[in-house]
TrEMBL record, chain A:
InterPro entries listed in its UniProt record: Acid_CoA_mut_C (IPR006159), Cobalamin-bd (IPR006158), Cobalamin-bd_sf (IPR036724)
Gene Ontology terms for molecular function: cobalamin binding; isomerase activity; metal ion binding
Protein name: Methylmalonyl-CoA mutase
CDD domains associated with the record: MM_CoA_mut_B12_BD
PANTHER family, per the entry: COENZYME B12-DEPENDENT MUTASE, METHYLMALONYL-COA MUTASE, MITOCHONDRIAL-RELATED
Keywords annotated in UniProt: Cobalamin, Cobalt, Isomerase, Metal-binding
Domain B12-binding, chain residue ranges per copy: 6-134
Coiled coil (residue ranges): none
Organism expressing this protein natively: Thermogemmatispora tikiterensis
Length: 140, 320
């Protein structure tokens, strides 16, 4: 039973850009890979994203951002997760993320960064392989 | 492990939202030992008004749930929402998008929203919905709003999960009201005609009123099913709708129907638990290879489904 439960993923767009085609493509691809995907819609504050992640008890959060505000928004999201004691959730990001920012993004605890042109299979595999192992142990 | 459970339950009861969220996950996944947790939660539940919201796709269920939640919040109630969306029968995945329309509720600590995939269950809910309701109830949320999958005519399962069932119709959907005649019409405790700012809303309401007057069943004698027109866009009709829901709750309490409904629901839950157990035994008793052999024999007409079922029933120790 433990092995077959669907992975739950939150796909969220922090910040003010309204371009969510990429997020929708990813959400759809993860769904077709058998995951339960909660899509929050555009223009989410860090507070909204963390709150949704808590209530939905997701295994992973995928952040999509194209506005360039990632260095302001990502640290806030990671800080709020920590404040709320959410330490077992995989966080990854996609969109327009300049190469020079990637080391800093990864240092925040965001495990994966995916730019334009990334094959969706790669993201699916990344999510499957990086879910926190304790989350998949569902024995009570 | 037992202690860990107890700890989770205590945190849930004290209002910790992360504990509730985790409990919901455990319930959804049907983990071993969850029945003991649920038994404990059952003792603390039973206070919430459980409201079902159903209707065709696109009639505005999620938007209405958002407005209703806001209205209940103004009345200082803590509201939980379960939004069910369909699981793909092909991939087993699901895209749960109801939160998009509930965005304005974000940041309110008195609101707990959980998206659930139907996970193969028919009838507009997920098999775990009732147990999730139980956990939210124990956590002190009242009311609990359940938004079903939007399918239309066969989602009568909500009747077995909610105290008050609200059927939402929108104007301009052609002969929708006619299609409502069977099934869904009979499960409604309240009708909502949404999008009253659009042309045709009054006509839809009139058609509904006529259908109700044509088919007075025994329930309508004691409870006159209200038809409430709402406009989520303009924020109209929402307070009347909450009033109607509160009236229905009082009616259920005063007439003794609340207890009766709850008992009927619990009976069907017990039945479902037993069926689940029997199916589990069957899975242990009959190997995939044996299934294959039996099914081949049946397709070749060497055997028939009825005698095979009887044989398996005997092996499971069920009486003839």
């Amino acid at each position: 039973m433990a092995a077959t439960r669907p992975i739950r993923v939150l796909v969220a767009k922090p910040g003010l850009d309204g371009h969510d085609r990429g997020a929708k493509v990813i959400a759809r691809a993860l769904r077709d890979a058998g995951m339960e995907v909660i899509y929050t819609g555009i223009r989410q504050t860090p507070e909204m994203i963390v709150e949704a992640a808590i209530q939905e008890d997701v295994d992973a959060i995928l952040l999509s951002i194209l506005s360039g505000a990632h260095m302001a928004l990502f640290p806030r999201i990671m800080e709020l997760l920590k404040q709320n004691g959410v330490t077992d959730v995989l966080v990854a990001a996609g969109g327009i993320l300049p190469d020079e920012d990637i080391p800093a993004i990864k240092a925040m605890g965001i495990k994966g960064c995916f730019g334009p042109g990334t094959p969706v299979e790669q993201i699916i595999q990344f999510v499957r392989e990086n879910i926190h192992p304790e989350r998949l142990q569902v024995e009570v | 492990m037992q202690n860990q459970n107890q700890n989770l339950i205590e945190r849930l009861l004290s209002g910790d939202r992360r504990a509730l969220a985790r409990m919901v996950t455990l319930i959804e996944n049907g983990v071993p030992g969850i029945r003991d947790c649920l038994a404990e939660l059952h003792r603390h539940a039973g206070r919430a008004h459980i409201i079902g919201i159903t209707g065709s796709p696109g009639v505005g269920k999620s938007t209405l749930v958002t407005r209703l939640t806001r209205e209940f919040r103004q009345r200082e109630r803590r509201v939980a929402v379960i939004a069910v969306d369909p699981t793909s029968p092909f991939s087993g995945g699901a895209l749960l998008g109801d939160r998009i329309r509930m965005m304005e509720l974000a940041g309110d600590p008195g609101v707990f929203i959980r998206s659930m995939a139907s996970r193969g269950s028919l009838g507009g809910l997920s098999a775990a919905t009732r147990d999730v309701v139980r956990a939210m109830d124990a956590a002190g949320y009242d009311p609990i709003l359940i938004e079903t999958v939007g399918t239309g005519q066969a989602e009568v399962e909500i009747m077995r999960a909610a105290h008050s069932v609200m059927v939402v119709c929108a104007p301009g959907l052609g002969d929708e009201v006619q299609a409502l005649k069977a099934g869904i019409l009979e499960i409604a405790d309240l009708f909502v005609v949404s999008k009253k700012d659009k042309p045709g809303a009054n006509q839809t309401a009139a058609e509904l009123a006529m259908l109700l007057s044509l088919a007075p069943d025994r329930r309508t004698a004691a409870w006159r099913i209200p038809i409430v027109l709402t406009s989520a866009l303009k924020g109209e009709g929402i307070d009347q709708l909450v009033e109607a829901l509160e009236r229905h709750r009082r009616f259920l309490e005063d007439s003794g129907l609340l207890r009766q409904r709850a008992q009927r629901q619990i009976r069907s839950e017990i039945e479902a638990l037993i069926v689940q157990k029997v199916l589990q035994h069957l899975e242990e008793e009959v190997s995939p290879g044996e299934w294959q052999r039996l099914l081949s024999e049946i397709s070749e007409r060497a055997r028939d489904p009825y005698s095979v079922a009887r044989e398996l029933e005997e092996r499971l120790g069920l009486p003839r």
